[in-house]
């Protein structure tokens, strides 16, 4: 399969990776043939990339972090919880939600079963969903990324559960906001910006007294927008004043937001997001934490379509964890624009004169 920008997808292309709705259900499943109507619908939903079948890259399959069943269960749980709280916002901060901690501890346990089974520690978040589903899928992605970093830091089981529950519920305070603020397509005014900022405190107040949810998990909601240099909110904490779990959740939140399409911009390419994040070291986030995090992120994910400085077009077929910036590329188009009669691979580790050009139009 190969990953294409939606602008490069054509009627007749076959979906190679499931696309999900906001609630975690299947929108377009593997094997579906795309029509003009489907393509236009995907564009309206804000989906900017699609995995399609290709005869030259049929054996190129990016490893899934989560099985479809796990993601569906996790997103459904987040969706039902969050939408339920939106329907009773004035009660949410005062009432007890006895099943909240139990259900989210169970969900994170399922996520970690999948993550722990990964042979390759270089992770590519390849699931696709529309902008309306961002809030719900984003929580699951943040939990995956936070879990990977927690494993890398050697946390014990109890620490992992506290981190994972905090990661799944870090944005629970957003349920207390008018829904139109989440995906507003125009600039926020000062009042709206201040209202959104208050979600971290609201989330903390909602979680801190819930059974089976630790105060540490609640602090992930309170502090995930605090920044290493003191420029964050709500308390302008800096460096070690920010709990490490909240720093991890904030970092995962920041990265996934960068690579996701938002109402006001297209998503960053993973390599762009990695460069941006690295530049934030010891400013927005502790540099050593950023380095450890980026050591497990696919800069050039398998199945990404790329162009080389020589004019060749190909698809990333393999990423060596020890050399993530120089993957192996399967060439499918020659420099003159003609399709290759017999695709071949170039290992960039062995071709120092070659470099990649990652284009959002490919």
Give Rg in angstroms. 21 Å
Total tally of structural domains: 3
Strand order of the largest sheet: 9-8-7-6-10
CATH class category name of the largest domain: Mainly Alpha
**N-to-C CA distance:** 14 Å
Largest sheet: 5 strands, antiparallel
Morphology: globular
Low-confidence stretches: none
- Number of helices, where a helix is a run of at least 4 consecutive DSSP H or I residues: 12
* Share in β-strands: 5-15%
Tag the structure with descriptive keywords.
12 helices; alpha+beta; Molybdopterin biosynthesis moea protein, domain 2; 12% strand; 10 strands; 362 residues; Hypothetical protein af1432; three-stranded mixed β-sheet
Structure notes:
By secondary structure, the protein is of the alpha+beta class. The protein has three domains: 51 residues, Molybdopterin biosynthesis moea protein, domain 2 (Alpha-Beta Complex), CATH 3.90.105.10; 173 residues, Hypothetical protein af1432 (Orthogonal Bundle), CATH 1.10.3210.10; 53 residues, no CATH class. 39% of the residues lie in helices and 12% in strands. Strand 2 and strand 3 form a beta hairpin. The longest helix has 19 residues. The two termini are 14 Å apart. The mean pLDDT is 89.
């Amino acid at each position: 399969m190969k990953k294409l920008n939606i602008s490069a997808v054509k009627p007749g292309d076959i979906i190679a990776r499931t696309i999900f709705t906001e609630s975690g259900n299947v929108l377009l499943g593997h094997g579906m043939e795309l029509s003009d109507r489907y393509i236009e619908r995907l564009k309206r939903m804000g989906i900017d990339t699609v995995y399609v079948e290709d005869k030259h890259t049929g054996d190129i399959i990016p490893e899934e972090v989560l099985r479809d069943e796990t993601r569906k269960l996790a997103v459904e749980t987040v969706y039902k919880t969050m939408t339920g709280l939106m329907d009773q916002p004035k009660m949410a901060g005062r009432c007890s939600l006895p099943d909240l901690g139990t259900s989210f501890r169970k969900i994170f346990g399922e996520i970690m079963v999948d993550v722990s089974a990964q042979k390759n520690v270089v992770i590519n978040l390849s699931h696709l969903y529309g902008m309306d589903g961002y809030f719900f899928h984003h929580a699951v992605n943040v939990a995956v990324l936070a879990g990977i970093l927690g494993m890398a830091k050697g946390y014990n089981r109890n620490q992992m559960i506290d981190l994972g529950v905090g990661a799944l519920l870090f944005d629970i305070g957003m349920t207390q906001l008018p829904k139109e603020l989440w995906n507003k397509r125009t600039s926020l005014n000062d009042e709206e910006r201040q209202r959104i900022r208050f979600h971290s405190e609201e989330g903390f107040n909602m979680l801190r007294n819930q059974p089976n949810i630790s105060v540490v998990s609640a602090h992930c909601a309170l502090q995930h927008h605090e920044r290493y240099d003191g420029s964050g909110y709500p308390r302008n904490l800096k460096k070690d004043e920010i709990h490490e779990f909240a720093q991890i959740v904030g970092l995962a939140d920041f990265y996934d937001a960068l690579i996701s399409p938002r109402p006001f911009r297209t998503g960053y390419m993973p390599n762009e997001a990695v460069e941006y994040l690295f530049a934030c070291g010891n400013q927005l986030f502790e540099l050593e934490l950023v380095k450890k995090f980026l050591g497990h992120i696919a800069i050039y994910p398998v199945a990404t379509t790329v162009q080389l400085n020589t004019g060749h077009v190909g698809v990333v077929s393999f990423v060596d964890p020890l050399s993530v910036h120089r993957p192996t590329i399967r060439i499918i188009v020659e420099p003159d624009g003609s399709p290759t009669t017999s695709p071949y691979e170039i290992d960039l580790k062995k071709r120092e004169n070659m470099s990649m050009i990652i284009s959002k139009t490919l």
